[in-house]
# Entry
Amino acid sequence: MTSMDDRIRAVFRDVFDDDEMQVWDEMAAKDVLDWDSLAQVKLVIGLEEEFDIKFTTHEVAKMTCVGDLKKALLSKDVAI
Amino acid sequence: MTKQFDQSLELGDLVQVIEGTEDPLALGVQLLSADQSELQVERAMELAQRYGSQVKPQSARLLKQLAGSYASRHPEAAGRHLGERPAQMSAAAGWLRAMLLQATKEYKRAALELDELLDWGWDEGRAMRLLALARARMEAGDRAGALAALGETAKATLSYRTLSTVDRLLSRQKRAGTIPSKRRCRIALIGSVTMDFVAPALRAVCHGCGIDAEIYTGPFGQYQQDLLLPHSGLAVFSPEIVFIATDWRSLGLDNEVADPLAAIEERVTHLRDLWAQCRSRWGAFVVQHNFEVPATDAYGRLSATLSGGRGRLIRQLNLRLWEVEREEPGVAVLDVEQVSAVVGKNVWNDSVLWHSVKQYPAPAGIPALVRHQAALIRAILGLSSKCLVLDLDGTLWGGVIGEDGLSGIRLGGGPEGEAYVAFQHYVRSLKRKGVVLAVCSKNNDADARLPFGQHPEMVLRLDDIAMFVANWRPKDENLRMIAETINIGLDTLVLVDDSFSERLWVRHRLPEVEVPELPQDPALYVDTLARHMYFETLSITDEDRQRSTSYRENVNRKELESSSSDIDAFLSALRMGVELQPFRPVDLVRITQLINKTNQFNLTTRRMTESQVQALIGSSNHYTQTMRLRDRLGDNGLTGILVGVIEGQELRIDNWLMSCRVLGRRVEEVMFAAVVRFARDRGLSGLLGEYIPTAKNEPVKGLYERLGFDCIAESEDGSRRYRWDPSRQSFEAPDKILIEDFTQRN
# Structure
């Protein structure tokens, strides 16, 4: 497990208030009961602060699974 | 750069690669993450000890990860690393140990470790440690301790994410039962923007202020219906305080408006109608957000110069709102324009989140916003702080008045001195708006008062201070006495003190007193104090302006009764270690310097030249002792000196002094115990002590009595001679201090 995965998982655990939550690339909004639009924004805010980056409006709208999130993060040359 | 390593990394190889890089600890721990062997933690600990006096967020996070994965791979080995705690641990090593304890479910020990860990050199470092502490206490079943740590975290942090985590942990605690607070309050956040992300942060900050906030956020964009409809969610909630967060976009203003005055009045009337609803329906206090002047405007400077320009109009509207505030009881305007400027409008505004979800301000602006909201809530509920208690040395001026004297302290006349002057101006302004000032300093009273009357750069005067306490008693006792004498609650006191150990002590003894972390640089004192907004008020009366004077008149200057506070807990928390050595050539310069500049803890004030000191080294007629004190805050260096002269069968203590930095730590008892050991081993029949009074050494006047000496002579100038019989008397050093005594080695 890479450091980036750990950090993403930590943000998910914060947002969904679940200290045991597991996160995988294919996991999508439909797999998580509380992953609504509010949670989506919480994820965006949490990831932006964790990785010190900004998502684009397009990315915010299109992020529907963990893989998308990671792709967007990797495209920003995040310091891992 | 990255280099591939085998599984087994040698420490030397690691050091070679990371030495001199920007963050060697982070890089080292990262390289170690490939090491799956049992040695991994040991190596990480060595790195943390070596490079971890400063902890940065990256390395703290990596160490936490390493501890977690190591504990799951090698649970037994992890336990082996958690035996006896080394006496000296760097900040990072302490953190790693705490994270290992946490990962092996040793929550109680993890909490103790975190509680004792020093705060790190960056603002969020304190918050990070406190949050980890709260989690550990929670797991250990210490609910009250966890809630306190969560409150401290909320006060410390400026991170939105940390605030929302605090709120999340709080709500878990809430499900388990009510949270103790000074006050519960129902607060509504309504307005033209999404408030869902403000609410958690506000709840967290309120908890830090002792307010249990129940928060209502209405459906987006429906605040007018919420206010007007009889059975709206807001009506059911029945708020005590309503924040109306309307943003500049909701004003619907073009870049240029035809009739600006009419436009302003129309909007003011509209808002007043909303306030009236809140007042009449629920008797709620209303806080109206004013309007940010947009960061961008296509009209550029014309936006302010044209009589109908939007920028100009919004500024006028804001002024008008303050005018009507005066006519409306139960209404206060929150200066969002100012908050956005302080945060920085480029940070305050996030166009992506605005277009995506109508989020305003940006999450990075929310911590500042909710601090302002909470300060107003405190003011509305009458919970604002009332009294600012000031330390003197290092807080109002640089240096130590009792040592450096009037001409030696740094106040004005240079960059650092100017910073102290600026801080005094800020404090004086606080007094003018009704904050009561008090002084609480470990000093001789006469020394402490000296600069107030006589230093030309001194801004504060003695009659600005309602209560002036300078003595050598523990600060918690003095603070308690100040609160009682002025007759206000301890929870209305704010202590500003540059000494880390005093802050720690007061927080430990009197958790209800506000003790802000103070940066080392006095230039930042004003910003730090201002950021907490302890003293926000809704209005000011003549009575407020006079408050300080009237308190001062009430203060009864009775002589303080001495009391014996148990400071053992404090001392053991400091983890002191003392090293005693005979005089050595390597220390010659420092010894001579101390002998010639120490004034307060100095029994005989006998000055000596360097060659006189040198003559004592190795002398068979003398007993010499230097004392080095280290504690978990660091090494205080060589700070104590004792010279004894062997005269026949007796040892006369000719010179005994300690730097004022280490006073009040019972270290003098350690020094003395070594002398007793020496005398007994040599079969000496008596110890002789002297006290020669000077203008400065009042603090040690009763030292020999306290140690159990008998006074055998007193002369007219107040000098006293004392005697102690080592064959009949015994003396134990405080058991909380680790002592290494090398004085009899030669």
